Amino acid sequence: MRFQIALLCILSMTACAPQKDSISLTAAPGQQAIIRDGVPALVSSKKNIVFLRPLDARQESGGRPKFVVAMYNRGNAPATFRMSDLRVEMLQPRHASIKVYTHAELADEVETERNTRLFLAALSGAAGAVSAASAGTTYTSGSYGYSTPYGTGSGFYTGSSYNPGLAQAAINANNDRTLNTMASIESSAQNALTTLRATILKDHTLMPNEWHGGVIVLDPPEMSKEGAQYQISLWLDGEEHVFTVSQRSS
Q1: CATH superfamily for domain 18-102+200-249
Q2: Distances 249 to 94, 127, 203 between C-alpha atoms, Å
Q3: What distance in Å separates the CA atoms of residue 170 and residue 71, rounded to the nearest whole number?
Q4: Residue 86 in contact with residue 101, Cβ under 8 Å?
Q5: Where do the DSSP E strands lie in 46-168?
């Protein structure tokens, strides 16, 4: 019985898990296929060395593929890499360019999302303030009847009372809740920006015998039933390194 319950839990989790695509690399002449941390990678050796591997061998379907790129300057002079020297071209199911996001573009997305969430939190806080201000008001209503020597009758009454202490407590609680929400949004955005600064590949001048690398983020490729195939091309110090990538639904 316990086994059946555990199996149902596993199947339920599997059904809810996002679909994954598998990413594989094809070595070209002058390239060596290796494995790093369980993930296939390629090393392109020319005058300089360029290394490429998927951030994960299986990435979320429909998501932005991410790759780790590292470069080594084996020359005797500085070599400057710029993000404009990196291009991605789709080969299958059709020929088209695939966008590579810069650090600035990714940071702008984080800041836009942060500002939107802060605006919505402020609106929610304003609505909560209106509700909190009326929390000290209590309404009463009822009916009554009377009898006199001249006859009987009945009626209804309504009334209200206001407790300023109760209203202030509700206002304070709403303010605290709003400030905590906004602080959490800001903290999350700052953490995301710090991660981007530390990991995303940027323009860089490599001195002789220097390694430089980071993560590149691509637009999702167009997929057919057979998946997608695209090439990641990187220029460094006048030479091109081209990597062929296949992406298929797992």
Answers
A1: Immunoglobulins (2.60.40.10)
A2: 17, 45, 33
A3: 58
A4: no
A5: 49-54, 58-60, 66-72, 79-81, 86-92, 96-98, 100-101, 137-148, 151-162
Burial classification of residue 73, based on how many CB atoms lie within 10 Å of its CB (0-12 exposed, 13-18 middle, 19 or more buried): buried
- Give the separation between CA 25 and CA 21, rounded to whole angstroms: 13
Do β-strands 20-26 and 58-60 pair in parallel, antiparallel, or remain unpaired?
antiparallel
Confidence of residue 71 (pLDDT cuts 50, 70, 90): very high
With bands split at pLDDT 50, 70 and 90, how would you rate the model's confidence at 11?
A: very low
**Using CA atoms, how far apart are residues 157 and 194, in angstroms rounded to an integer?**
62
**pLDDT tens digits, 46-69:** 999 999 999 999 999 999 999 999
What is the dihedral sign for C-alpha 178, 180, 185, 189?
positive
Please report where in the chains the tokens 């009463």 appear, as a residue. 140
Sheet containing 66-72: order of strands: 31-36, 39-45, 49-54, 66-72, 211-218, 100-101
Overall residue count recorded for the chain in this entry? 250
Residue 213 and residue 204: Cα distance in Å, rounded?
9
Identify the sign of the CA torsion 89, 25, 215, 16: positive
Collapsing DSSP to helix, strand or coil, 125 comes out as helix
Tokens 């303010």: give the residue: 175
For 139-164, how does the pLDDT look when each residue is reduced to its tens digit (9 = 90+)?
Answer: 566 665 656 666 666 666 565 656 67
Pairwise CA distance, residues 233 & 100, whole Å? 11
Domain boundaries, the chain: 18-102+200-249, 107-129+139-195
